[in-house]
Amino acid sequence: MTAQTETHRFEAEVQQVLSLVIHSLYTNKEIFLRELISNSSDALDKLRFESLTDPSLMDAGETLGIALEADTETGTLRIADNGIGMTREELVQNLGTIASSGTRRFLEAAADGGDERPDLIGQFGVGFYSAFMVADEVTVETRRAGSDEGWRWTSKGDGSYDIEPVEGLGRGTLVSLKLREPAEGEEGQGPKRFLEEFALRDVVRRYSDFVEYPVQMEVERTAPKLDDEGKPIEGESETTTSLETLNSQKPLWARPKSEIKDEEHVEFYRHLTHDWNEPFSNLLFSAEGTLEYTALLYLPSKAPMDMFDPSNRDSNVSLYVRRVLIQKECKELLPPWLRFVRGVVECSDLPLNVSRETLQDDPRLGQIQKRLVKKVLDEMGSLLENKREEYTEFWEAFGSVIKEGIWGGDDTDNRVSKICLFETSNGEELTTLPEYVERMKEGQEEIHVLTGASRAIVEGSPLLESLQEKGEEVLFLVDPVDEWVLQRLFEFDGKKIVALDRSDANEDDDEKKKREDLQKEHEGLLGSLQTALDEEISEVRFTGRLKDSPAVLVAGEGGLSGHMERLLKRSGQDVPDQKRVLELNPDHELVKSLVKLHGVDANSPRLAEAAELLHGQALLAEGGAPKDPKRFGKLVTELLLNSVKG
Ligand code: ADP
Prior knowledge:
By secondary structure, this protein is of the alpha+beta class. It is about 35% helix and about 20% strand. The mean pLDDT is about 90.
């Protein structure tokens, strides 16, 4: 410690991460090296990018790279890079606080996770802090490109870190890990094994082979001494050291597709995304001609925790120009509804000095985006066809986001809607629109759908009754975004898509005429029920679509469905109360009795009570609730009492 040393406390969340990491039983401790090499590789990317506009940041012809050094005497492993480095403020900010919302969620999950904590570490990746899995003291010495001030950051991971200025540092960052002694039960497999050449070689090859910068290490070799003729001299040996590069450095996307092994894709995906899971699928393709580029894209298998974070809707594909990373999350490359797709696009036709601002207006990126979207949709189509079970899991994770493509207006030629999966009255397995159309009955002209809060609610809806009798299938749209999907999706394969809970659904001219005649006949009854419900209902009328139930609620023409109204209200939106239509089943005994009662006593107060009860019951059937539950309960009790008394 020098006089200028300052001690800082870690932000509370950092300390939480650290104690999780330190006390973790996580067995895959070697990933710390992947994380540190990844950080170095990012720092080199940043330097290369900044030096495009400020060439003074690095010397001409300088080699950018990462060096490992194992010091067996002190038990220290060092990882050095000549990348961008950090200023004092950046050190405090980056290694003392937590910026990522992912990590905050990680902590929440860890707090709930109990014994599963170790796994969480693997799943989320805690970046730099994973160094404390193997070290009991970590030192970071760094000098920012363009600055002459060097800084040393030291911590034992016990709540605080020290910062002090250091003279004479080269540009970049040196991370030194004082590897800890083996813990109980760890003998032979303790952190000190990372001082051995073969262990480092193995870990680098496994996790960081494709890192574009050389990861180098001084390697000692002992060989028999040779005489002047090049023959080994018996009993004599000599030790030489040489700098060896441990990784092949070839970016995966620059290699022939057929040569890339699945494991390599897995590790590259993890390097790229910090996601611990394996990707579901990968796509590697190149375009030649007027615009040349290569794209390597991954469909993840599990949704990240922040997928629905409204501030995080940009595409996650990185743009490289001739090996230089220009932008990590280049939003011009994919639309927000494909933001879960991860990967890299490298384009040789864009100028290297392209700025983030000019990217926005570059029509070439629009061209690339078009092709990328098509490729991703084709890939999803083929996975749907060939790997149905896995696709269903993928759909469960990402379907809601993909459907944003429909309501966002990207469903030309049904290209998005045809790869969607839906719940159906046809069985437990999810189905697609093309499969539905295949199964349509002769004479069935429309695709029937019903929205609602859950399968159980929709399945019990009275609106299914007559269709069930006819044997016609209904798609259950139970994802909240489906209401929005329906605002844009009117047709599929030339067939109209009709939501059953809209007032004009599925009624032909004959049926309409019959209904209107009947309504005329019973004008008086319908009128008095309507008067009783005037505040909540725009119309009481008959319907032919019910079989067992006496009544159902549907949306008035152009009005919102009950489900949509509830969704909007729950999300805090100020929606005016919707007046909907109460439809009655004229063949139901109860309705027939009401007709009779009205004939005998048109002013009977029981008519108004019946109206309220029918309305409340219809609300309950669709997953809603009567406005005044207490009064509804009281009416039901009275009714019960009368029936019990006989
Ligand atoms: P992540 O890499 O996911 O952002 P980390 O905890 O690994 O999270 O690192 C936090 C930040 O510290 C990085 O985003 C980067 O800004 C900085 N950093 C870490 N290592 C280095 C390095 N070798 N050179 C420069 N900056 C670094």
